[in-house]
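Each record in this resource describes a single protein on a pair of labelled lines. With that in mind, the following record should read easily:

===
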Amino acid sequence: MRLTAPQDARGPRGVSLTEGELVLRADRVAVDEEHLVFLCAEEVVFRLDRRYFRALTWFVDRPTFGEWLRARRKQYPNSHTRWSEDERGQLATEVGSGFGWQRISDLHGRTIHAVQREAVRDGLVAAEAFPRPGVG
């Protein structure tokens, strides 16, 4: 959260406020008659007199794509990697042998959706075999 204060020589308790920023870690803000109350895990981390602010910007910490991908590859080691010709041949054999999608997913280190999508691209199954929710 980034808070911007107006220029005001009459700050709280005789403190002069100037244009500036206050950066806090909080997960929510409660508003009462006189204050903005910043909380993190239900603990008050800062209380601000409502007269002494003009803008509030809330920033959400999100993982970068690299962080997200590293976490995803713990479960699916081949996530977002290209399919090799050998892997495509293995997929064709598995689909032709009637392997279940979960088993194929586990063998390839990819999501079920990823192996189904590749099977459709390679012409091993029809796209209609996997209806998409909300489409129709």
In short: The CA atoms of residues 1 and 59 lie 5 Å apart. The longest helix spans residues 85-96.
